[in-house]
Amino acid sequence: MEDVTYTLEFEKPLRELEKQLITLNQVSQESKVDVSSEIAAIEKKIDQMKVDIYSDLTAWQRVQLSRHPKRPYTLDYIERVFTDFEELHGDRRFREDAAIVGGPAFLDGKPVMVIGQQKGRNTKDNLLRNFGCPHPEGYRKAMRLMEMAEKFNMPIITMVDTPGAYPGIGAEERHVAEAIAVNIRDMSALKVPIITIVIGEGGSGGALGIAVADEVMILENGYYSVISPEGCAAILWKDRAAAPQAADALKFSPTHLKQFGVVDQILPEPTGGAHRNYDASAATIKAAILQSLETLEKKSCKELLDDRYAKFRSLGEFEDSAAATTA
Fold first, then answer.
1. 205 and 232 share a domain?
2. Do 35 and 166 reside in the same domain of the chain?
3. Helix, strand, coil percentages, rounded to 5, for the chain
4. Would you state the pLDDT for residue 55?
């Protein structure tokens, strides 16, 4: 699954070493010359450079990794974590929205409802899926599937990976903000366990529309924010080029999110990012879901709803003060 043709700026020194390793291996195979010591030396350098680069990423570098075009998307994880997935389509009001996929599946033999945002791998697929930016009908489809899950007492698993809901004229005409608001309201009252994993980008209400969950997890190179760094930079710095500064200011790295109580777990990725090993990343997600479900299913319906309400009501810090009065 690893792709060395797409290189982020901060990864270039590592890629150069990886190219040298490929060349040495080819020379060894073609000329039958023993270069094992040189190969071992470069492999050691690569391992050390991976630690140096990926153990101290900036917020902006994590954003870049979260957007890596070879990063596993929702359907990649569904294929590896679940079995017998049956995708369902349409919101029964307007049309199908391919930016959100969902349907029933089995998790180690247990029926669940899986829903997630889906990006495309090429131009044609991205146009079909609107670059992972859902229209209102996508959120209404998601809510239809969640209500079906509640009816059949199936836990709900959602995967977040979107820059945000689509802000176009058509989406506004069909009330995208209202669709997200309804999902937030109705998810808070669903009587089945809900688990959300931010697998890449978690942009604004576009993410929150399927993320009102009992347990919120995030992969270590994902981000979850009220606005994209470019959007924030355009507003505060009047220049989208200030996105790296905005990423730092927004404090949306997984470590900050856990510190603030926005997420409950940070899931580790293979060194260098989830795109380097789909199977290992999927195994981590599956183990986390199973562990979380085991805990959530022990709760009564009332405990589940009360804890979910308390979780989201406790987010943020507030200070009340009586208004000064004058005689």
1. yes
2. no
3. 50, 15, 35
4. 83
